[in-house]
Design a protein that fits this description.
The chain has 2 domains: 5-74, no CATH class; 77-182, no CATH class. A hairpin with a 4-residue loop joins β5 (132-142) and β6 (147-149). It contains 5 helices and 8 strands, in the order αααββαββββββα. α1 runs antiparallel to α2 and α1 (2-23) runs antiparallel to α3. The chain is α+β, with helices and mostly antiparallel strands and 187 residues long. It has a 6-stranded antiparallel beta sheet with strand order 6-5-4-3-1-8, covered by helices on one side. It has a two-stranded antiparallel sheet with strand order 2-7.
């Protein structure tokens, strides 16, 4: 499972750099766009709608430009809480076509802003695919409803992760709902 930890940590570092570059007014659009493209390489191409960072001319609007320092001050690197390996997972047709092997990994992480640093915000599904280990899907945690959600079509999502067969605990979240889920599964 160490290769999964390494992949998700490398993604988190690339995403963090993209978020910093997005809001740092001292970085040119061209440089920010280049840095912002780096996290995308961790996703399988079936998730082509995933994008990061700044768009050209984003700060041409003075109101938007004045908001940048506030956003920059809130950027945080995601925390990895735990990773679970599942077998007998159910996924949509698009994911079925690309996944190789019988395991899928779900990485539970915090938010990418300071306000979401100590709780579940997102989970990423990683699998061995036709082009290597890639993120193939992700969910968001709705804290008020205490549930995970994903609003993409069923063909592009993990419908049911299946049976937990291995868990790697990395850091416990501090928020009650997240901590309860963190402690729920045992092998």
């Amino acid at each position: 499972m160490n290769n999964i930890v390494d992949l998700i940590q490398d993604f988190i570092n690339a995403e963090y750099n993209a978020n910093i570059a997005c809001w740092d007014l001292d970085i040119s659009d061209e440089e920010a766009i280049t840095i912002g493209s780096k996290p995308s390489v961790f996703f399988h191409s079936i998730l082509s709608f995933v994008s990061f960072g700044r768009t050209r001319g984003m700060f041409d609007d003075d109101d938007f430009r004045s908001f940048a320092p506030i956003k920059l001050s809130r950027v945080a690197k995601r925390t990895i809480f735990q990773i679970k390996r599942y077998t007998k997972f159910e996924c949509g047709d698009a994911i079925k076509r690309i996944v190789k092997g019988d395991s899928i990994y779900r990485c539970y992480v915090s938010g990418d802003e300071e306000s979401g640093k100590h709780k579940y915000i997102r989970s990423y599904y990683i699998a061995d695919t036709d082009i290597g280990l890639k993120i193939v899907d992700y969910d968001h945690f709705n804290e008020s409803e205490n549930m995970w959600f994903n609003n993409v079509s069923n063909s592009h999502k993990v419908i049911n992760p299946g049976n937990v067969v291995e868990i790697k605990k990395i850091e416990a979240p501090q928020k009650e709902n997240s901590l309860k889920d963190y402690n729920a599964d045992h092998i």
